[in-house]
Amino acid sequence: MNWLILFVAGLFEIGWAIGLKYTEGFTRLWPSIGTVASMVVSVVLLGIAMKTLPVGTAYAVWVGIGAVGTAILGMVLLGDAASTGRLVSLGLIVAGVIGLKLATPV
């Protein structure tokens, strides 16, 4: 169950990372409220998941989900470059996250 909680925490990390772009430096009210709410939910869920998961694994997986998801949404929503190097690098992050999941006995 804590792996699912960690995954959802990673999704909320993606939400706040992308949300930062839409806050325009926290000058827009509703995007700012949504972004801050996503930050809080993400960190609270990460903390819950860390009750049983190793801290290094949980944090690395959380960051990996956030980094990959944010980069992909940046390409899809914001027109960020989707070069071969970026895509291969994202694949390596995904491989690392999967490796951590498989190597963690919890």
Give an overview of the whole structure.
With 106 residues, the chain is an all-alpha fold. The chain has one domain (2-103). The chain is built from four helices and no strands. It has helices at 2-23, 29-49, 55-78, 84-103. Helix 1 (2-23) runs antiparallel to helix 2 (29-49) and helix 1 (2-23) crosses helix 3 (55-78). It starts with a helix and ends with a helix. The model has no long low-confidence stretch (mean pLDDT 96). It comes from Polaromonas aquatica. Pfam families: Multi_Drug_Res (PF00893). It is a multi-pass membrane protein. Keywords: Cell membrane, Membrane, Transmembrane, Transmembrane helix, Transport. It is found in: Cell membrane.
Categorize the overall geometry: flat
Q: Compute the separation of the termini in Å.
A: 10 Å
Give the count of helical stretches.
4
How are helices and strands ordered from N to C? HHHH
Percent strand:
under 5%
Instruction: Count all strands and give the number.
Output: 0
Q: By helix and strand content, what is the structural category?
A: mainly alpha
Q: What proportion of the residues is helical, as a percent range? A: over 70%
Whole-number total of structural domains: 1
pLDDT under 50 segments (min length 5)? Answer: none
Question: Radius of gyration over alpha carbons?
Answer: 15 Å
Q: Look at the structure and give the mean pLDDT.
A: 96
Largest sheet: number of strands, sense, barrel closure: none
